[in-house]
Amino acid sequence: YGPIPSGVTPGELYSPGSMFTWPELQAMASDGVLVQLYQRGYLPPGTRATPQLRARAAAVLIRPAIRQRVVAGRMTAAWIFGCATEPDRLALLVDANRRISSLRSTRGCTFHEVRLGPFDVVSLGGLMVSSPLRTAVDVAVHVEAERAVPALRALLGKPELGLQLRLLRLAVEATPRMPHKRAALAKLEYLQAGPAP
Asked: What are φ and ψ of residue 96, in 5° steps?
């Protein structure tokens, strides 16, 4: 391939499409021309993985027909924000007002039927993603402590996300009739108790 093939621009995400096929992208990655960001998304070496680029890499795996009907959430959103390891499967939230049955055939994804409020979703890189606060609440409530606590610590540690432990606690406490609420509050207590060991 030489240094950088024509059509490869620094800072750009590449996925299979009109410019390169997936085998071509894999070959360029094995030659060191590109590095894999996530699944079928590749970046030129030295490109900083931003939330927008991670969101675009996740969006590649979601059929265009359903992309506007789902929201990347839980540990997938934490990864998009740069606060968790890449997910094995994309966790996608579907508003309870929409039909979820037609989405079930999408491979590599898990679907969670939820209620989404107007401030629960942000748009990043062409993908709807749960907001930092909604992400943190969902991680506290739905993810086991071993994975949740480091992700929550990372989410709270990024000033650009605007999260505070007090606000997160209030959001968890305000959630009505929620299973696992006590366990979520215990995770937050653990975070408040001090820094990582």
From this structure: -60, -20
Q: Is the pTM of this model over 0.85?
A: yes
d(CA 14, CA 56): 9
Strands 90-95 and 121-124: unpaired
Strands 35-38 and 41-43: antiparallel
CB 43 within 8 A of CB 49: yes
Helix axes 165-174, 145-156, angle to 10 degrees: 130
26-34: average pLDDT: 91
Q: Are 171 and 137 in contact (CB under 8 A)?
A: yes
Q: What is the pLDDT of residues 46-64, one digit of tens each?
A: 889 999 999 999 998 888 8
The bridge status of strand 41-43 relative to strand 71-72 is unpaired
What DSSP assignment string belongs to 99-144? --GGGTT-TTEEEEEE---TTSEEEETTEEEE-HHHHHHHHHHHS-
pLDDT score of 72 more than 80: yes
